[in-house]
Every structure is written in structure tokens, then in C-alpha cells.
Design a protein that fits this description.
This protein is an alpha+beta fold. It has two domains: about 160 residues, Aminopeptidase; about 160 residues, Gcn5-related N-acetyltransferase (GNAT) (Aminopeptidase, 3-Layer(aba) Sandwich), CATH 3.40.630.30. Strand 3 and strand 4 form a beta hairpin. The radius of gyration is 22 Å and the shape is elongated. The relative contact order is 0.14. The structure holds coenzyme A (COA). The site of coenzyme A has 21 residues, from strand 11, helix 7 and helix 8.
């Protein structure tokens, strides 16, 4: 397909129904949803001012509910059957974590794959991401990220050809709350009664993280970065009452950190157990299992319908623990990145 056959323009609210069909057609081939499904973008598109169609790479600036910078890019092709969406891409700046990240999330319609559109879309998204990052104040690491679920290997080849590097793969696991979960293990010792997160004991959570994740590859956040990303009271999704810490005497030995995620249709609430860890000297004594079981009981009592978490594919020990508690695999999330 020649580049001149393609029209690149920002997506508009009027495109929503066509984009929903586009996503359904992609999902038939690719399986699970992308990171930024249209359900997440729809309200942003509806609230955006329409912009005139433009040259390759012109995008629609919109702001997410949290003030995050997000832009969309639509590729259309006109043929005998009319105009169809050939590809769509979303670019999003996330500064919550320890580094400035731009997420690139693009899809090509199955009928238009193998024509080079994916490479063009990826390069267009990358050039936008780079422009944003170049405009930020210095001092923080910067990275372009591609995060996707259950995608076929052809997409991964495209990322590698464009110098994106495999970072990690994690399995998202879920557990329905309210009745059948094995969240009844009980705490192993009365001394381990958990405390929930508060600013006065925030530093203790980090101390356990630092020790527990010291045994995991590539986990070495500073206190400031960890608090900002994982236990930030200004983050509206953070759930301090359900983020728990246990001590042996005065020593903090195990913790969980939890966040809330609304279900896609907004009807129910999921609890993300974002992180859990037990200090190395206290492992294999049932403390991790008991703490999570207590967390699940409290989540169910607080009205959550599901608990979810992610486990790295290189962490079979933690996975065994989650499976024992009744968590089951939902989907695999793979991350590619490029340092800037
Ligand atoms: C994963 C972790 C939280 C487990 O904590 P723990 O208190 O040692 O876990 P428990 O003693 O409650 O173990 C419960 C079950 O999990 C499984 N399990 C836990 N650690 C295991 C290991 N090293 N090898 C094999 N199975 C393991 C076992 O099925 C175990 O039951 P068993 O001891 O009766 O065989 C802890 O190893 C840890 O902090 N790891 C580093 C941080 C991390 O990986 N966090 C999870 C990120 S997703």
C-alpha cells in the first residue's frame, strides 16, 4: 500500500462507533484487549475539541482525567468499499513512576496488516513521544514503553526491528471475591496482626520493599521513587486502608500495597494487590500466605468483587503462593521499551 493512499488524522468523537468495530475486529485476531482500550479513550474523545485533519503525525491533544497527556492518531484508507480505519495509535505520557514514560499503543486492522502501516505508525508515535520527552525538565530517566496483552509474535518482531528491547512479561491473575476463595488461612501468630498504611509508618513499608525485592532482579528503587509510584497518598487509586504491614516485635517483616481499579463498565471495583513482599529471613513460614489471605478478607468486606495482581513470569515461587490462594491467570502482559 502506497503511503499516499493513507490519510493520517486525529481521532474525533464521531469516530467512536467505527473505532469500536475496529477494536472488535482486532480482538478477533489478537485476543485480549490492549492497554488503552477505546472504553478508556471514549470519554476523552467526547470531551475533546475537534481539530482539522493534518499531515502524517498530527495528533489530537487531549488530557486524561488525572491530567496525563494523551494523544491519538488515526490512519484511514479509502478504497472501492469506502473509507475504513486502517490503524489507530494512542500516545500517553505517564510521570507517576520513577521515570518519565511515554506509552505507545498502536494497532493495525487485520485487513491492512503486512503493508508497512505498523512500522509507519510506530515511528510516528515514537517521534511524538520523543518530542514530549525532550520538552520535559531534565534530571529523570526517560523511556518509551510498549505494553500489550497476548499479542502474536509478528508484533514483537516489529518492535525489535525498531530497536525496542524486551523488558519483562507478567501474568495478570484474578480471584473472584465473596465466597469461594481460599482466603481463610488465618494469621499464623497473633503477634502478626497487620497495621494499615499511614504516613507515620510509610517508611517501614519501604524498608520491607527494599529488603524483600533486593532478592529480585532489577528492583532497586529509591525511597522517593518507591513512595511516589507505589504508596502515594495523592494517587486517588491508592488504598491505604487495604495496604497492610506486619511486624515481629518492632521489626516490619511483610507488607502489601493495594490500589483500586474500576471495572471497564464502571459497575464493580477491583482491588489490585500491587506489591507484596516478605523479608528474606522470614520466608517459607506462611507469612506471605496469611497476610494475603487477610488482605482478601478485608477487600471482600470492603465490597470489592475481584482481586487482581501481576506476577513476573520469572517468579514461580510467588506464582505458587497466588495459585494456592485461588488466583487464576487472566492474560499475559509483555513490556518492550527504549531508553531515551
Ligand atoms: C513471594 C513471597 C512474598 C512469599 O512469601 P512467604 O512468606 O515466603 O510465602 P509463604 O511462606 O506464605 O508460602 C506460601 C506458599 O507459597 C509457595 N512458595 C513461597 N515461596 C516459595 C519458594 N521459594 N519456592 C517454592 N514455593 C514457594 C509455596 O507453595 C508455599 O507453601 P509451602 O511453604 O507450604 O510449600 C516472598 O518470597 C517474597 O517476598 N519474595 C520477593 C518479593 C516478591 O517476589 N514478591 C512478589 C512479587 S509478585
Amino acid at each position: 500500500m502506497a503511503p499516499e493512499d493513507l490519510i493520517w488524522r486525529p481521532p474525533l468523537a464521531a469516530d467512536i462507533s467505527a473505532l469500536l468495530c475496529f477494536e472488535a475486529d482486532c480482538a478477533d485476531v489478537d485476543g485480549a484487549t490492549d492497554r488503552s482500550a477505546l472504553t478508556a479513550w471514549e470519554p476523552r474523545l467526547r470531551s475533546s475539541e475537534p481539530l482539522p485533519a493534518g499531515e502524517l503525525g498530527e495528533v489530537l491533544p487531549v488530557r486524561g482525567p488525572d491530567g496525563a497527556r494523551c494523544e491519538g492518531l488515526l490512519v484511514e484508507v479509502t478504497g472501492p468499499a469506502g473509507t475504513r480505519i486502517a490503524a489507530a495509535g494512542w500516545v500517553e505520557l505517564d510521570e507517576k513512576g520513577p521515570e518519565s514514560r511515554v506509552y505507545l499503543d498502536g494497532r493495525v486492522h487485520p485487513a491492512f496488516r503486512g503493508c508497512g502501516i505498523g512500522s509507519q505508525l510506530l515511528r510516528a508515535m515514537e517521534s511524538h513521544g520523543r518530542r514530549w520527552l525532550a520538552a520535559l525538565p531534565g534530571g529523570r530517566s526517560q523511556v518509551l514503553r510498549i505494553l500489550f496483552y497476548d499479542r502474536a509474535p509478528d508484533a514483537q518482531a516489529l518492535f525489535e526491528q525498531n530497536a525496542f528491547v524486551f523488558r519483562h512479561a507478567e501474568d495478570d491473575m484474578e480471584l473472584k471475591l465473596g465466597g469461594c476463595q481460599r482466603a481463610d488461612a488465618g494469621l499464623p501468630s497473633p503477634k502478626l496482626a497487620p497495621e494499615h498504611w499511614s504516613s507515620t509508618i510509610a517508611a517501614d513499608f519501604f524498608r520491607i520493599y527494599d529488603d524483600a525485592f533486593g532478592t529480585r532482579p532489577g528492583s532497586s528503587l529509591t525511597g522517593a521513587d518507591w513512595h511516589r509510584a507505589f504508596a502515594n497518598p495523592r494517587d486517588e487509586d491508592f488504598r491505604p486502608q487495604l495496604s497492610l504491614l506486619v511486624r515481629e516485635g518492632a521489626e516490619p517483616i511483610a507488607y502489601t500495597v493495594c490500589h483500586e481499579q474500576p471495572e471497564e463498565d464502571g459497575s464493580q471495583r477491583w482491588l489490585w494487590i500491587t506489591q507484596t513482599g516478605v523479608k528474606p529471613g522470614w520466608r517459607r513460614q506462611g507469612i506471605g500466605r496469611a497476610l494475603l489471605a487477610e488482605n482478601l478478607r478485608r477487600a471482600a468486606a470492603s465490597g470489592y468483587s475481584r482481586a487482581m495482581l501481576s506476577v513476573n513470569v520469572d517468579n514461580p515461587e510467588a506464582r505458587a503462593l497466588y495459585e494456592e490462594l485461588g488466583f487464576r491467570m487472566m492474560r499475559r502482559c509483555t513490556v518492550y521499551s527504549k531508553d531515551i
